[in-house]
Amino acid sequence: IQSGFTPLLVGAKVGITEENGILPKIGLLGHLYLPLAAGQDYRPETTGVDFRFAFDHTLNERSSIAYNLGAQWGDDSSEAAYIYTLVYGISLTNKLGAYAELYGDLPENSTANHYWDAGFTYLVNGDFQLDATVGSGIDNEQRILLSAGFSYRIKN
Predict the structure, then answer these.
(1) CA distance readout (Å), 96 to 7, 30, 85, 91, 152
(2) For residues 54 and 111, what is the distance between their CA atoms, to the nearest angstrom?
(3) Cβ–Cβ contacts within 10 Å for residue 21, how many?
């Protein structure tokens, strides 16, 4: 049995365009996976990196659908893995939201990995959000994913 924390994830999102009719809102996300905070069972020798373009469509006042397309390099491999995400989100109240997501990666020279998760978000204030997630692998041996986190928006 493995235990410990995975690498610390640091990222940023930059807006490119706002939603306009059928054209989606578009952003660019990037992350660094820093091995220094990882437990021994999960510590890679090198820093990982990913990027993705994020697209968001409003369906109505309470719900939206979003998808991401990009690539990542990590796990001490020079092999790129193309990544995707498809998520449906709904506002349950003005502070509480729920979502369901399908996501995965398609490595250049390995077997594809597909996953699902679902969770809740809680907007503490206009700039600070908490989240909790549960999920699992669809076609691999990941039995359960549990995560919690927070996001803080930095205004310019």
Answers:
(1) 28, 26, 22, 6, 16
(2) 24
(3) 5
The closest of 105, 104, 102, 100 to 133, measured between CA atoms, is 100
Strands 96-107 and 48-58: unpaired
The DSSP result for 4-27, as a single string, is SPPPEEEEEEEEEE--BTTBPEEE
Q: How far is CA 124 from CA 46, 96, 115, in A?
A: 35, 9, 28
User: What's the CA gap between 151 and 56, in Å, rounded?
Assistant: 18
Dihedral sign, Cα of residue 12, residue 74, residue 115, residue 22: positive
Give the model confidence (pLDDT) of 78-121 as tens digits.
Answer: 789 999 999 999 999 999 999 999 999 999 988 899 999 999 99
Instruction: Specify the pTM.
Output: 0.76
20: Cβ contacts below 8 Å, ≥ 6 apart: none
The conformation of residue 153, written as its DSSP 8-state character, comes to P
Q: Say which DSSP state 71 is in.
A: E
Q: Which residue, chain included where needed, has tokens 């437990």?
A: 39
